[in-house]
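Hi R.,

Here's the chain you asked about this morning:
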Amino acid sequence: MSLQNIKRDYDVIIIGSGPAGFTSSMYLARAGYKVAVITGEIKGGEITNSLEVENFPAFPEAISGFDLMAKMEQQALKFKVTMINGIVKDVDFDDFFTKKIILENGEELIATAVVIATGSSPRRLGIPNEQQYIGRGISYCATCDGFFYKDKNVAIVGGGNTAIYEALYLSNMAKTVHIIHRNATFNRVENILIERLYTLSNVKIHTLSQLEELKTDNGTLTGVKIKQKVTGETETLDVDGLFVAIGQVPNTLFLRGKIYMDEAGNIIRNPDTSATNVEGVFACGDVAHKYRQLVVAAGYGAIAALDAEHYLRKLEAQIARQKQINS
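And here is the predicted structure, written out as tokens:
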């Protein structure tokens, strides 16, 4: 089924090895195409930092994000998907039939179609020990990890719609929710959310405040130190968990000028498909969809694979017709 008379290393190259990328690779490999996954900086993506995943279908018992993605990788390998450990430095989509991928180590790969599943990374706070406590007190997704803080005290950093949505979500299970916001007002938040927020007795709001330091004991997060921006006064909040909601950064820097994206770096897809403005290039997962959930990413990974397969079959038919004309 591989495409004939086209010089390439692979039929499809998938950039990114999270749930969207692995799912897409499985569908395409099962369809008979030669597929490679470029794993990126973190094989399995950001979800590998989650100690427990409870909301992915078929796992009634919690599974770690690392183990879940290891199983997805094993399943992809079962279908003969090639794993390439590397980071994409640049791409060349100028040629209709061949898409060139350039890795940081200088290696060049050629494919007929490309699926972009690079995901997005949570914007970090940039404070000491932040990386060390990810999954051990620090989370970037309340709907993913909020359940583990039932009847406990938590804090959330942020002041946009996402932060308030997550604070409202956490208020249903946590004992106390502290919101740490650097500005005086929530002027970027919908009024209805603010109204709901101020009706909750277990939500404490700290405006004009910034997080200064993590408080820990024997590898456990025990609190956070915040500083009031006007008075300079500091306060320690006793919390078991810290949720960071200060935005997402799409992993698309290498695609600037190569494909249509919005100002934030999210890939713009054609309506109702995973197709981009470049023929033969498709996008799925967090980098192209607003709902950043495992099951959503996996689902759209399958859609991207089906769209890519349709594109390849159409191209094969065109090549076959051209060969008949030439003969």
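One quick note: Confidence is low (pLDDT under 50) at residues 1-5.

Cheers,
M.
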